Here is the input.
Amino acid sequence: MGDSNQMPFRPPQLKIKPRMIIILFLVVLAAAMGVSSLYMVDQTEEAVILRLGQFNRIASPGLHYKMPFGIEQNFNVPTQVIQNMSFGFRTEKSGVETIYSRNDYPEESVMLTGDLNIVDVEWIIQYRIEDPVAWLFNVENREKTIRDISQSTLNRLVGDRKIFDVIGKERVNIEARGQEQLNDVLKSYNLGIRVTTIKLRNIVPPIGAVQDSFEDVNKAQQDMNRLINEGKEAYNREIPKARGEADRIIQEAYGYQAERVNQAKGDVARFNSVYDEYRKSKDITRSRLYIEMIEEVFKGDSDTDLIDKNLDNFLPLKNLQSGGTR
Amino acid sequence: MNKKLTTIILTLIVLAVILIMMGPFYILEEGQQSVVIRFGKIVDSQQEAGLKFKMPFVDNVIKYSDKILAWDGEAQRIPTKENLFIWVDTTARWKISDPAKFYASVTSYERAYGRLDEVIDSSVRTIISKNFLREAVRNSNQINNIDDTQQAEVEGVEGEETMQQELRDLANFSESKVTYEEIKKGRLKLSDEMFDAAKKITPEYGIELIDIIIRQIRYSDDLTESVYNRMIKDRNQIAQAYRSFGEGKKAEWLGKLENEQKSVLSGAYKTSEEIKGKADAEATRIYAESYSKDRDFFEFWRSIESYKKTLPKFSKTLTTDLDYFKYLNEKSPR
Here is the structure.
């Protein structure tokens, strides 16, 4: 094309022959035809072909031919790619260490729960284009439509549950229901996509004092367990000790019992033996026992006083003496 | 001669191309619809894709989208029936159903959005202010059906089923286990009502409304603050309940400790005294059985045995009166 444009600026002495113009025209025509009739479809894509604006066919990956000069148009649609959309946060740069944007998106993530509390929910959805024709020609603001419906679905599901259930055990249920309902609505628009995943990311109470108070409940639960364990610990420390002590007391009593009975048996055995002999010669034995007793009692003493029974005035003297020595 | 002919052919080709390009045809793509205007008057409208005809130079073709379009208004601050101010953010989908009417009544997208703003905003406002907040927030009554056993557990205390139960009761109590008021409509129903109100008006503009969806509901700022405070108070109260429960359980354990310690020790004392008593009785029986054979000898024997033990400790002053000394004064018995 460049050549023909420069024609008028050529020196006038060069003669323009009509034949040249025709040949040039045909060459340009052929080149334009070649360029405008070949197109490529990537492995991840499918191409929708319109002929004179009307849907004609779908082309698979590879190099293809179409009618030139805009008679046929191709639109490549990435039908094999799973697409991501995040709500309440943005990924700034994904990689080994994904960087998330510092900004919050409260207009997406703040929701009211069924018990009229406030919760902050972040989530992602993933979808794939299943019907490229529907995707291209049925809905105008596609991304925005997906975002809107995803938000409204999540809002509705969270609005039907208590804050604790949202944070806790209803999480999985919300994901499953969300996907189902989102797909239903998008299908009613004939958007040509299927949502394959909804994943709730962070579900937290509003940041600040509210979140602190939620954390304090967890701490309180820890405290509770600690206190109970302290009580248990004291119990476990003291009670086995007390049981041992009780055992000791009882064992001691048994010891006492054995001792007492054996002593009695011993005493009695001795008595019985002596008694048997005593019966044979009562007087002698009696005297012997008596004398033996006195002997034993007095043998160790050295300062025993012995007085005649007629010395009546001895006693006060004795008293004085012992009083003086003291 | 030859030169003249080629010039003519060339001119004809160029003319033909120009005619076709300017000329009686235009392409309507999938997802487009068109209105054909001739001297300011609508003469034709097309909704099917393909090659379409028009009068060259005279007709003006205006193409509109035939796809579903999105409408997104500003969030509105609306009081509910109980006079709580909330932000309601709605979004809608619509479509140009009658391009001729659309051209005649609004012509451009901007003006169409303006009309939709008016129609939808007013229907949203009407419906929200006629209903309680809970109707807009919740969609069903299933909130009361979700079994809400609390997740707090007493750790490391196996087999304490009664305690877990107690804790659960406590938690449910402190969660102020209320059955939430039944809602009659729910969010989807409200959206439908807004939709019903708005969709009656839009056909005037050649617009078909497809749906209205509540995207988000938020408390107004001052309301948010008070809700935060309520949430905090609520949590504090629950935290306190857990701590008190722990304190109570600890005291219970300590009491149990005291109780068991005392009862174990006193039980042991009792048993030991019983054993000792039995031992004493047994000993007494053994002594009595034997000693009762000869009372006189027993007394003598026992006294002698006793003297042996006790007398050595006394400081003694003896008189010769003692039987023991009877031989001191006499050589022969008396």
Observations:
- Strands of chain B lie at 25-28, 32-38, 41-46, 50-53, 59-65, 69-72, 76-79, 85-96, 207-219, 317-319.
- The first helix of chain B runs from residue 2 to 22.
